[in-house]
Amino acid sequence: MQIYNTLSRRMEEFAPLEAGRVRFYTCGPTVYDYAHIGNYRAYVFEDVLRRTLKHFGWAVTQVMNLTDVDDKTIRGAKAAGVPLSEYTRRYKHAFFADLKTLNVEPAEHYPEATAHVPEMIALVSALLERGYAYRSDDGSVYFRIAAFPEYGKLAHLDREGLRPGARVAQDEYEKDNAADFALWKAWSPEDGDVAWDAPWGRGRPGWHVECSAMSMKYLGESFDLHTGGVDNIFPHHEDEIAQSEAATGKPFVKYWMHCAHLIVEGQKMSKSLGNFHTLRDVLERGYSGREIRYVLLAAHYRQPLNFTFAALDAARAALGRLDEFRQRVEGAAGPAPGVLPEWAAACRARFDGALRQDLNMPEALAALFDMVRAGHRAMDAAGGACPGAEALRELLGCLDGVLGLGAGARADADAEVEGLLARRRAARERKDWAEADRVRARLAAAGWEVRDTADGQKVTRRG
RNA sequence: GGCGCGAUGGCCGAGCGGUUAGGCAGAGGUCUGCAAAACCUCGUACACCGGUUCAACUCCGGUUCGCGCCUCCA
């Protein structure tokens, strides 16, 4: 498959270092708060990527880190008056619950920063030994970018472009060069009891070194794929490359993929605009994880995505259409395996082709919807019969292995609903349309939609 | 200032040098007791100005507007 590699800024044919297996690292959350839908766009993108790799037959080893020590987590724990680990545990659990809501497949490893400090210390030691890092008077350790000529190759920044910006913290006067970044931060009183002992002093690891140490531990010194949001390109991923390649002398990552941000109702998501949404917020408005997932994956990952509630409504309708088709196929499926109809085979080819083209999900979905139309038409023409329904059902499952949209909630009618349905059936048999419509209205009020089909009444849960 | 991205029909959102993207919403129709679902038909879409070309939404140049990154935000 073709993917767009941020490193080369062009499309490349994807070929993992080891045949048949993809080693893949994903920057995970900093667990200091609930993640927002922008974060989940990245995680859903990575999930679709992971599922696509598996769909094309590669075995996948994916690692997603959990940053559970940094300025924000320390500050949060302090404000809450609880130990750091207790504070972050809550958000770790929330994060995994959210992934489940969005039907994101679990990665193979979720290493926590606080559990890998020895590995980070080893990496920093190697960088010190090789002359790529230096200690400051206060016991911090910095990476010397002047020692790594390729610094800037991912972000395509030259050193001239790295002038000190307004955001450089004032307390970083210890650095030789303003663009040098911290590998190790010396303990300061605000850190409280959050500290580890290193040969050069007490403190805590810098953020970038965490990803280098943990990715290389689980995936090796060189691996295939590293992903994240575009905002991670610089400095985070640039710094990871510098640290890792300086320490090992080997290429760090072969392909880098970054997803664009999302905006909300046409505007940048921000708390002051009141359009900052966590996943929980959106669920509370009555939308399902499945609907949110649909919206997040329906745009190409390298394009900014405009997240709107109108789009969620459209997603609900689109998913309803998919569910309708699936149910019709399942209803038509018999025991004979059958042969996949031609229109379905065409869809499969087009769907796969779209994925191979740098994960073109809009095109893949277009293929799916075209198949839905062709399928209904074929079944209508055949009086409801569907030759090859078994094979078709299997295909739908296969495509959903990539999409992860699953089946709609199949709520079972309870006794009361069954009773109403029986009443309506009787009314219809004696052509008492007024009574039939009254019962339908009652069911609708209870959230059930009735449809009269050739096979009798069918109810579906609405809302 | 540096690097980069975008502008598509009411909304979302692909794409390609010439042939229907797709979804949602809307209009008409078929079917149905009525609905619903499904199917059929319907929108003279590609920011603006030039240029290249037999042909440009698609390539090139410029303009306007918007956006991202330039030290720890997916």
Task: Summarize the helices and strands and which ones pair or pack.
Elements: E1 2-5, E2 10-13, E3 21-26, H1 37-55, E4 59-64, H2 71-80, H3 84-101, H4 117-129, E5 133-135, E6 141-143, E7 181-186, E8 196-198, E9 201-205, H5 207-219, E10 223-229, H6 233-248, E11 253-259, E12 262-264, H7 279-284, H8 289-297, E13 305-307, H9 309-332, H10 342-356, H11 361-381, H12 389-403, H13 415-429, H14 433-445, E14 448-453, E15 456-461
Parallel strand pairs: 3-4, 3-10, 10-11, 12-13
Antiparallel strand pairs: 1-2, 5-6, 6-7, 7-9, 8-9, 14-15
Helix pairs in contact: 1-12, 2-3, 4-5, 4-6, 5-6, 8-9, 9-12, 10-11, 13-14
The structure holds one RNA strand of 74 nucleotides.
Architecture of the largest domain, according to CATH? Answer: 3-Layer(aba) Sandwich
Please report which band the strand proportion falls in: under 5%, 5-15%, 15-25%, 25-35%, 35-45% or over 45%.
15-25%
Question: First CA to last CA: what distance?
Answer: 39 Å
Question: How many β-strand stretches?
Answer: 15
Q: Which segments are poorly predicted (pLDDT under 50) over 5 or more consecutive residues?
A: 164-172
Q: And the CATH topology of the largest domain?
A: Rossmann fold
Question: So how many helices?
Answer: 14
List the strand order in the largest sheet.
5-6-7-9-8
Radius of gyration: 27 Å
Helical residue percent band: 40-55%
Q: What gross morphology would you assign?
A: elongated
Helix- and strand-based class? alpha/beta
Sheet bearing the most strands, described?
5 strands, antiparallel
Number of domains: 3
How do the SSEs run, as a string of H and E?
EEEHEHHHEEEEEHEHEEHHEHHHHHHEE
The average pLDDT is: 91
Write the CATH homologous superfamily of the largest domain.
HUPs
CATH class type of the largest domain:
Alpha Beta
